[in-house]
Structures are given as structure tokens and as C-alpha cells.
Amino acid sequence: MINIRIEKKLIALRKKWVIKGELLATIGMILSSVLGIFYVIPFYSMIGDYGGTLYGCAYSIYLIFFGIYQVGTFLAIRKIVEEYHILGYYRAKERAFQLGQRMFIIVGLIGWLLLFIFAGVLADVIVGDIVGGSIRGDLRFGIRVISFSLFIVPLVHIYRGYLQGQKCFVVTSISQTIEQSVRVIVLVVGVFLAFRVFHFSFRFTVGIALLATAIGAFVSYFYLFVTVYQNRKQLQKKILKVKEPKITDSVIISQIVRYAFPFIMVDVFKAFILSVDVFLLVRLLVDVFGYTVQQVEVILSIMTTWGLHLNMAFVSIAVLFVVRLMPNLRVHFVNQNLENIRVEMNLILQKLFFLAFPLTFLFSILSKPIWTVFYGVSKFGSEVYQYYVFVSFATLLFIVAMFFLQILQEYKRLFLILFVGVVTNVLFYLPLLYGFYNMGLPAYYGAITSMILSCLICSMMALHYLGKKYQINYEQTIKRVLNIIIITLVMVIVILAVLYFIRFHSNVRILNLFMVIMCIIVGMIIYFGLMFRTRLVYDIFGYQNVKKIENRIRKKVNL
How far is CA 390 from CA 235, 440, 461, 517, in A? Predict the structure, then answer.
């Protein structure tokens, strides 16, 4: 763990320019997310619900392993490189980079072997004794294809951590955009050629879509490798002339493991919480509640692929407006400024509700036209997504609460809460399926509710614990959130009234797009109008900040 002295030195040196770098990296992630949202339109038209089920299930299994590499690897290398670079330990910095590559190549190889060898076992766990179709064999093939991504993904994040540890945010941001762009291009073009031109099977077509993940990561790695090689003299340049102590490989390796382990565990637990549907839903809906295999394929494809990609819009908002504020919270923690910690946490929660809560309801009441715009007419699509969209908000609150615990280094409590989240999701699952089924509602609403409750329970536990330990008063946040809820309900009533009087029914995508845009404009006018009228927007974002934005808009309008 980086000691307080080094942390304060790092913060002092980064204070003037790190936020710009973080913002640039965030913009890259947002662009990547936008690409990830819109590519599903042609993708769905080619592979449909069955292909979405195969893709979503295989990708969900892959994400459990991906959590080890994405955050844990990246942050561990970034923190070590950053620490050694600031202290002037340049040989140790380069050694950490090399050792990190070797370590996670081995970890990637182990992950690939596990997925490849046990793909059949995982497919059997997911589909159970269900008969009909070839889903078990197709799923086994898909898991084995995507397992190859585990070869290259660790190296990509090692390089990103190495570069960001030396403040090369532009390169890492570009690499993220390249990775997603190549993945989308390969996926769409490859699937089109495989299915529409060469008429390959669904198994092979979805395999190409899954392989696009590895190809995108490889191109990103190649770009990072070339960039580091071309700039190696500048990256290895010794700015400070200090006597560098001898730091053994075992010390560096232990640091990498110590830094990475908490983040790895967090991501693995999160992946398990969000992947319960993959392991339980298929067998329960077919064996217990009488759904057909074809119906379950459609429902599961919505919850693991198509609806999940629409929910990425909310994740992008969280990344842009919430994660950007996290460095400030870290600064306050290092400086032991408890009052600022209390203020910052409350503001982050308020901004999260302000931005994401109304969008959740907008997407829910407009689920049918939105689904039609992206995927066309579907019997289950809008019905499932109308409720599934609330998972996005619960997940956002969960992610932010877990971020709080990570930044404040409450790792023991974090692991306990995540374990509770996994257990509660599993325990609630079947009772809630029966509960909704007995009420005459779709049984799969119980699965969605189980995930929402698990995320909310984890979030409330984390916020309650931090409130007690750091004496955080949430009273102001609760009042403002209640006002946000009331204003959101007013907006919803107005939009429902508009939809009632228009009585819009159409299967034409362009007409549905027009309806979505119109309702969003009406909703935003109502929402922001009431926010300004009640001055709640000034309370949350600050009077001066809002006025600056207003002045910029007025100047552009006048121009």
C-alpha cells in the first residue's frame, strides 16, 4: 500500500493537470460506450434472439475472468509505476512493468485453459437437462472461442497501467477507442459475411462475433506496444537524480499482488452478482414455470445482450459525471479531511440521482418505441426491458457505493458486502420467481427484482457503514432525492398523458424514433424546468457552475 507521504507527494504533483488527463480518458471510454450501444442494431438484425443468447451467455462467463485483468491489473501496475516514477526509482519502474507482463501472461494462460477445458461443464450448468435445439453445443463452442481473448487482454491493461502511471492519458484513451472500434467493425462485417454471404451456421457466426473481442484487444495492444517502443527513451528518461535502492523482484511481485487483489475480488464478486441469471434462469423457467426453450432464449438474450447494451447509456453517464469526481474524494481521504469527504460523497449521490433517475423512468415508459428503433418489433422485448431498465440504476448506485469503499480503503467491509450481495441474489431468486408467477406476472420479473434488491442491499449496507464510521449525515441528500423523485413523477405523468392522447402505434422505426425524441424533449423541458424553478439544480451543481454553463449556451445561441 502506498504510504501517506508518497500519496501526498503524488497528489501535489498531479493537482494541476491530472483531472484533464482523467477527463480525456473518460471521454475515450464514453466514445467506446457509444459505439457499443449502436452496433447492436445491425448485429441484432443478423443473429436475432438465439444468437443473442449464445453471445450473452458466453460473454457473461468471460466477464468473470475479465474482471481479474481490467481493473486489478491496470490499477496495480499504474500505482506501482506512478510511485516509482515520482520517487525516481526508474529501474524498479521498468522492472515492475516487465514482471507485470510475465505474471499476467501466466494468469491469462491459466484463465484460457480453465475456460477452454471446462466450457462443456459450464454449458451444462447453464442449460441443465433442457432438450431441444443445439444450444448446449453452440454455447460450449462460444465459450471456447471467447476464451482466446484472455491471452491478450492482460497485456493491454498492463500497458495502459504503465502509461497512465506516467500520465500518458492520451495514448490510453486512443487505445480504448481503437479497441472498441475494431471490435465493432470486425463483429458487424464478420457476422454479415458469415451469415448473409457465406451462410455459415449460427454457431460459427456467433463465434466470429465473440472472436472480435480478441481481435480488438490485439489491435489495441499492437498500438500500445508500438507507441511505447517509439517513445521508450522519453518514457525511460531519468528526470530525478536520486540514489535508487535495490528493490528485489519478490518485493515488486508482492506489491503487484497486494495492490491488485482487492480490485480483482471486487470485480469477480460483481460479475457473479450480475451473472446469476446465466446460471439459473434457463433451467428454472423451463423446468419449473413451463416456458418453452425458444421463449427462454428470447428472454435471456434480452437480459444478457440486447437490453444490457441499451443500459450501457446509464453506465456511460456514471463514468462521465461520477467517476470523474472520485479523485477529489481520494485527495480528501489522503489529507484526512473528513468534512470534505462527507460533502463530496453527498454531492456524488445527489448528482447520480439527478442524472440517472429520470432517464431510467424515461427509458421504461418509452421501452416499446425504443426497442422498436433498435431491434424492431418483439413480443418479449419491450415487456422485459420495461422493467429490466431499472437494473441499470440499481447497478449504478451499487458501483458508486463500492467505489466509496475502495477509495476509503475499507476492503474487509467491501468483501463482506459483496459476499452478502451474491448470497442474497441466490436466496431471493427462486422465491421471487414464484412470487411474481403466483401474482399473474411474468416469472422472469422475479429474476430482475432479485438483482435489483441485491444491488440496493449492498449499496445501503455500504452507505450505512460509511455514514456511521465517518459521521456522514445523509439528511440533505434524502430531502433532495425525494424532490428529484417527485419532479420525475410529474415528468412521467405528463409523458404518459402525451402518449395517451396521441395513441401512437407503429412498427416503422423512423416514426418510433421521432416519438422517442419528442417525448424525451417534452420530458427534459418538464424536468429541468421544475429543477430550475425549485432551484434544486443550483443546490446540487453549485450556483456559479450552473451560471457558467448558462452563459456559454447563451453566447453560442447568439452566435
Answer: 45, 20, 20, 20
